[in-house]
Amino acid sequence: MTHVHGSWLRAAGAARLLGADGAVAPTIFAEMSALADVTGAINLGQGFPDDDGPAEVLETAREAIASGQNQYPPGRGAPVLRDAIAEHQQRFYGLAWDPETDIIATAGATEAIAATLLALLDGPDDEVVVFEPFYDAYAAVIGLAGARIVPVRLRWPDFQPDLDELSAAVTDRTRVILVNDPHNPTGTVFSPDVRARIVELAERHDAVIVTDEVYEHLVFGDPHVPIATVPGAADRTVSISSGGKTFRTTGWKIGWVTAPERLTTAILAVKQYLTYANGSPFQPAIARGLRMRDEFFAGLATDMRQKSAVLGAGLTAAGFDVSSPAATYFTVADTSALGFDDAAEFCRALPGLAGVVAVPLTAFVTAEHHDEYRPFVRFAACKKREVLEQAADRLAAITR
Predict the structure, then answer these.
(1) Do 302 and 320 share a domain, yes or no?
(2) Which of 29, 181, 204, 363 is most buried, by the most CB atoms less than 10 A from its CB?
(3) What are the start-end ranges of the H helices in 121-152?
(4) Which of 115, 197, 128 is nearest to 162 (CA)?
(5) Is residue 316 part of a domain?
(6) 3-state SS record for 264-309
(7) What are the pLDDT digits (tens) for 27-67?
(8) 268 within some domain
């Protein structure tokens, strides 16, 4: 079922990431963040917090630097971090992983996704089922691996997949079902029926489930349920997460993979040629964070829920139709209620209209489904409350 991709750096795959003139095409996040810098607009586009993480996590990093932990850690990750990840998975989800064989530390979740997909995919005969809209790196890595992406659409306003559509998408050609739950960019959380159907289909068609769970501690209602906890899933699931969102340290790029040994062995074979290892002094710091008291994690979700409510109320007051998120940093709004029909054009005009930056949802979809998502915009609420309130006041100016 698992085999290492033999030649993962493909010219054809790289070509998909270039613009029409052969230059490196910037992502929409880079474009919108640059626009925020030039105009002085409030950046609610890119999903990074505007305050630092917990003091004890930051201090642990400083101590690690001062004590000389500045050289390569082991390729699998520092033992202190792998032990903490194993403890975290057992503590919150009852999942038992061996830190010696089942866990790999990575350069953020994005490297974990890349290493995993490049390890499991073998070219054009392989298909990857993804839930659309999706984090833009998914399509890029699938393209580099030479595989085919098969989207299952998440539709406004609840962004839950249709189970019949999902069942039709998964076939014997499906190598990977790529899950992002809690979901970026929509803020949805998949229902128990959706998780159960994914596992059923993966078993039926002998597919691997790869699940991106970086927003696991930013769920506003009941606690996060990893798909690996669904009966029958753990033996065929690669779970990916990171410390960046949970501990507000997105620049540290400390992520991880948990999976059965036969899967981590294949992933490590690719990962060692990407970064090999990274973030030596930050690994014990994230380990410290993973061992923080339950109150910290509960408070994190409460704070994010409250900030999302502030943003949602501001967007509603400004005249947008809003999809209320169940998790993550993100809120999706419909610009057609304000008379706009192209969210990309709207986002490029928004700094001038209101002094705010957002990103169009079309940045997260395949070309064939572009029109279906044309009016929708993603806003990020991971900012200080006063910044969100100021943004809400500015957005109200659109309809004044």
Answers:
(1) yes
(2) 181
(3) 136-144
(4) 197
(5) yes
(6) HHHHHHHHCCCCCCCCCCHHHHHHHHHCCCHHHHHHHHHHHHHHHH
(7) 777 888 888 889 999 999 988 899 999 999 999 999 999 99
(8) yes
